[in-house]
Specification:
The chain is α/β, with parallel strands linked by helices. The protein is built from 10 helices and 8 strands. The chain is globular.
Length: 217
């Protein structure tokens, strides 16, 4: 899948569930249930045991996009790319990652928090920049301040975002929004509350469907 095509699909999907569970079994359950709700992309973080195997498993599905998250080294990036990841996400600026990723036409999103870090991520070749942890820096208002000075950069706010805040972040200029524990709720998953997780997923999609980007004059 071409690099630009993946980016465009993520912009259209607007929400990336960040799967960061304590076991691979819980990750599988989360992805299966949220897929039932209609979500079509998932960031599988490398903090999950056997995460690369999970990426390989879900990369075989053609109806979803699978990202590799918390990628911090070249070796990790290579393993994830070999496993079929559709995009790479790092929590920090790792300058070597975009070049490796682009060799396989896979987009790479580097993490940043301050304007200087954001600038360095763009200089390193990041296709988009993950703003993390956004909730500790003022949330959507902070994102809006960043987009005012970096209007050409695709920003993906992540970290502590609540499911009812999606519209606010999109309206503040987010290319898409990363949702972690508020959506991929490990407690609910452990309790087997399938219907609750599916309902959360559907509510997220309803917010996404209700949002339209303002027209540019």
């Amino acid at each position: 899948m071409a690099l630009n095509n993946v980016l465009e699909q993520l912009r259209q999907l607007r929400v990336i569930p960040v799967v960061r569970t304590s076991t691979p079994e819980l990750a599988v359950t989360a992805i299966e249930w949220l897929s039932e709700a209609g979500l079509r992309t998932f960031e599988i973080t490398l903090t999950i045991p056997d995460a690369v195997e999970l990426i390989a498993k879900y990369a075989l599905r053609k109806d979803i996009l699978i990202g590799a998250g918390t990628v911090t080294t070249v070796l990790q990036a290579e393993r994830c790319l070999d496993s079929g990841a559709n995009y790479l996400v790092s929590p920090s600026v790792v300058p070597e990652l975009p070049e490796i990723s682009h060799q396989q036409e896979v987009p790479c999103f580097l993490g940043a928090l301050t304007p200087t870090e954001l600038h360095n991520a763009v200089r390193a070749g990041a296709d988009a920049v993950k703003i993390y942890p956004i909730n500790h820096m003022g949330g959507a208002s902070y994102l809006k301040a960043l987009t005012s000075v970096f209007p050409e950069v695709a920003l993906i706010p992540t970290g502590g975002i609540k499911t009812n805040e999606i519209f606010q972040y999109l309206n503040s200029g987010a290319a898409c929004v990363g949702l972690g524990g508020e959506l991929v709720n490990e407690t609910l998953i452990r309790e087997g509350q399938r219907e609750k997780i599916i309902q959360l997923g559907k509510e997220v999609l309803q917010q996404v469907a209700a949002f339209s980007y303002p027209e540019i004059a």
